[in-house]
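To close the chapter, one final illustration. This time we ask the reader to focus less on the individual chains and more on the assembly as a whole: which components sit near each other, and how the overall shape emerges from the parts.
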Amino acid sequence: MKGWMGKFRVLFILGSTALVLSGCGLENLTALDPKGYGAQVSLDLIILSIVIMVFVFLVVMVIYTFVFFRFRQKKGQEDVIPKQVEGNKVLEVIWTVIPIILLLILAVPTVTATFDLAEGQPEGSDLLNVNVTGNQYWWNFSYDDLDVQTSQDLYIPTGERVYIDMKSSDVIHSFWLPSISGKMDVNPENENTMFIEAQEEGVYWGKCAELCGPSHSLMDFRVVAVSPDEFDQWVTDMKNVDPEAEPETASAQEGKQLFSDKGCISCHALGSSPTAIGPNLTSFGSRTKFAGILDPTKENLVDWIMDPESIKPGNKMTGNYKEVTEEEASKIADYLLQLEPSEITPEDAESE
Amino acid sequence: MSTAIAQKQGFGAILWDYLTTVDHKKIAHLYLFGGGFFFIIGGLEAMIIRIQLIKPANDFVSAGFYNELLTMHGTTMIFFAAMPFIFALMNAVVPLQIGARDVAFPFLNALGFWLFLAGGLILNASWLLGGAPDAGWTAYAPLSTTSPGHGVDFYVLGLQISGAGTLIGGINFLVTIVNMRAPGMTYMRMPLFTWTIFVTSALILFAFPALTVGLFLMMFDRLFGSAFFNPDMGGNTIIWEHLFWIFGHPEVYILILPAFGVFSEVIPTFSKKRLFGYTAMVFATVLIGFLGFMVWAHHMFTVGLGPAANAIFAVATMAIAVPTGVKIFNWLFTMWGGSIRVTTAMLWALGFIPTFTLGGMTGVMLASAVADYQYQDSYFVVAHFHYVIVGGVIFGIFASLHYWWPKMFGKMLNEKLGKLTFWTFFIGFHLTFFIQHFLGLMGMPRRTWTYLPGQGLDNGNLISTIGAFLMAFGVIVFFYNVVYTAIKGEKVSNDPWDGRTLEWTIASPPPHYNFKQIPLVRGLDALWVEKMEGNKNLMPSEPLDDIHMPNSSILPFVMSLGLFIASFGFIYQVDDLRWLIVLIGGMLITFGAMFVRSVKDDHGHHIHKEDLEKGDGL
Amino acid sequence: MSDHTLNPEKMPHNPEKATLEGKNKFLAFWFFLGGETVLFASLFGTYLALKGSTNGGPAAEEIFELELVFVMTMLLLTSSLTSVYAMYHMKNNNFGKMQLWLGVTVLLGIGFLSFEIYEFTNYITNEDFTFRTSAFGSAFYTLVGFHGGHVTFGLLWIITLMIRNAKRGLNLYNAPKFYIASLYWHFIDVVWVFIFTVVYLMGKVG
Amino acid sequence: MVSNSNSSSEYNRKKNKEEMKQQLITFTLMIVFTLIAFSMVIFEFDKLYVIPVLLILAVVQVIFQLYYFMHMKNKDHEMPAFMFYGGLTVATITILTLSVITWW
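The assembled structure is written out below.
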């Protein structure tokens, strides 16, 4: 489908630049400005279907406008009785056959693309595999082959397919990365697989697209696409993390103590230990957002620790740790903010 | 129990008359006002949703409450506004169009209405009793099965009971149309509206049982501890999705086909031309109905059914565009060469054609499975289904109400107010929903309580909310029109629109026996045929004789009341087993009424020839 | 309608379809059965999707007892024949014999139902296999239970009809009622044929 | 007139009897099929072979029920047959779906 799609694409790029300039969504979030393979395939089909459909719509509207102005009852014609036409077989055949042809033009690339995007991982390839777990209301990413765990921010290398195996720990979620790949549901009883492939570096927005509870709209995540070298660096750094490492500042040291005293540690894992009840905090200091939606400032983090319910209603953190004062929360925040085990951070992806 | 008696007596008598009526015309009134009531509730919910989304990071309503609103908006609008409106039209028009004195089962007809009302009240009672359902109108498990509180229980029982009513109604109209057509009305002489109701009723018959089972399974899971949708015990949530959509997709056609039927009556009447390609239209209707059962999995493209299933359902879905396109072109060519009068009803039809074409366009776009990976569960889908359901069904209902109001109530809705309603609603509608296509593609998921600033979604949502207010204004004007007409409207003759079908041959509103003598039908557009031959009315097919009519009965109301009561027993027995008493009591009322019905003979009554000759009716 | 039109001296050949009400009932009931087909299909589909999900509880091949199912099948099949006999006598306008054969049908139905109740109690008490054991358990009891519910309703329906009309005999008003009750009874048998095949026999085969 | 209606009812009686005979044969066949089905399972025939045969036997039995016991073979049953087959179509795709594209 690529060859003849090219012409449409040129047309569309001209048109879409105009649209983007006039505000067609946020870069790295909108599906209209694809940065990944799946999103590109989807957009090609979207454009093709729009072109066909706009053609149909124009035909309808031309007839409609003509009929309306030409045959509207005029003064003095109230008693005119038009000829009662039964129908016309030729016309019926025409408007049955032409749509069928138009639909076939759309159906063939649709079927091809459906099988293309469903392609599994080739046998014996060493492509990256990530296990994605959807939880109310956060995402866990586990690189099982690499022995690395992370939450909320998914790091991937650019230019290669990353296979993600998705499963939910509670209700159905849907993993949606508009600018990279479209979406797939995350079901509780079976594993769904899709691949994502980012073509350029960047921090891409992801969202949960299946209603999953009160904070469904706040279940955002991000994909950090970095160059393969940077990715390898990141993996090495993450592997060498020492979860027990002492922080440097006194406040952060106290924070570390509070982190275990207040019961945080019973839900949140550090390092590569497998998924716990809450997000893995190994590289918390480098997070693009806190709790998926808050700008990464200390103030926001303190607010979150003090009262998560007011920020993400229905989350599972509320009420599951001992009460903290603002001062204690600030110390815990200091501890968490210095958890930056890797030099590779989202800024590397964005600065490119 | 006739209108004559009711008019002489007070409010109590009228109320009793409506509680016991089995007259299809009065049941149509009941459906219309029942549907109107729930339409207002669903509309208010929609307005709160739009106010919440007017700006980013808004907290006009809380997240939990928002989920209740969106669930109730969807459920109410589909099951308790659109469906009863369709049933109101069926009841008001079909027996008249086929030249029958009533439906095949007048008693069941009343039962269908009261079950619908009981279901709607149960569902909405949840607002007052600790929270509405909050898992979306699709109620995907396990979110729905694990949802705390009793909200989803109200959803399950409300839909189950109203669904039973719908099923009864569907069978009733199938039999009515098959068995009770006037002499000479062959299948290929049936008005297209009756045809669409026939196909719709068949869809109801085959689609609703799947929902019934789905709801039973969910009820067992929530109230009796079974494990159908509980993955921890081997359950499987996809079963719910399949059962829901095996019902859910035909449901969309159940709603839209009658609207197609309405336009197929309105457009010929106001173009003064017979429907272009009647045979093709009938065939297209049947084909749409049939294909409606083959495509449900296009709601599940992202579920992970695999590429083969996705490809098959994608192609099958696209196929539906063909008969739908046939219909659009046949409507256009009905107008071609006609003499178009732009009344309010016709205005809605004229507004419908481009709007629905857009909705159909996005429908085909959605059918392309891979493109759907982007649209699915985004605002693009929200825009699409509002284009077809509002732009198709609601436009159709507005058109039909303006068209048949004089027949139903004997008074003409005010045309000026009608046109004001149309223009505000039409513009408001496009303002609200057109922009949502783009919001979806720009990354706004469906059912989202709020969105963050700086994602490029602010302006679109603001425009959308402004449009919603305009739509609300249009609806308010319509309700004002209804009240205005009731008080000041002019009485109309039998045939105010220069109609073509049988319902325009009798008085407006019709006497309760409809036809003094059953007419003899001599062609498609039976009245038009006679008009062209210079006859004022149809020839009777029978001599004037006693007319056999069914008796009114309170039993349908009592049966529904019993189920209404029993539902609360079902819901609350989880908390306290003493509620089982309520459950059993309610069921006893229902079964008792059924028992009375089956052992008490009811042969109906006769209106005597002499009374008919006096022209009085009773 | 006057008594005369309902009790003509000569019964027509098909008394169940002699009046418009009868024709309507006949057609509506067939349509209803069309809908019931989808209802049971949904239950069968659910059962097939979940029959392997035993969640550590008993599986199909471990618990089903074919002897019992065979007896139940024979009872229900025979009751289908006896209700055919009843309709045969209805068409010959022999009310007494119709009542007799309906009575036999009811007895066979009660027999079937008793065995089913025994079967369920046996599973629950001796095999520890309940509605809540596993998804398989839920699906099994729901499918077979829905059928059992239909049997119960059918029995109550036929008994009510028999008692109500015992004194006044057959007429054009109640003939359609008897006829559709017997249709319902046959449909119950149709469903059972699939239950014993799909649930029990195929469950035993594995 | 009287004798005429008598002879027609005589004719009907005969026809009913004829039909009853067919129904008895149907019943016998159904019993035989049931016996075959049960014994195939009890004597543990090969699974690959048993399941399709079981299903065919069930379908044939149901056809007997529908066409003979429920009279679908008689005239005036076009509409019932049409709607029943409508239901059967939806039923088939429902079962097919739930047993094929649900996981596994």
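The radius of gyration of chain D is 20 Å. Confidence is low (pLDDT under 50) at residues 1-5 of chain D. With these observations in hand, you are ready for the problems at the end of the chapter.
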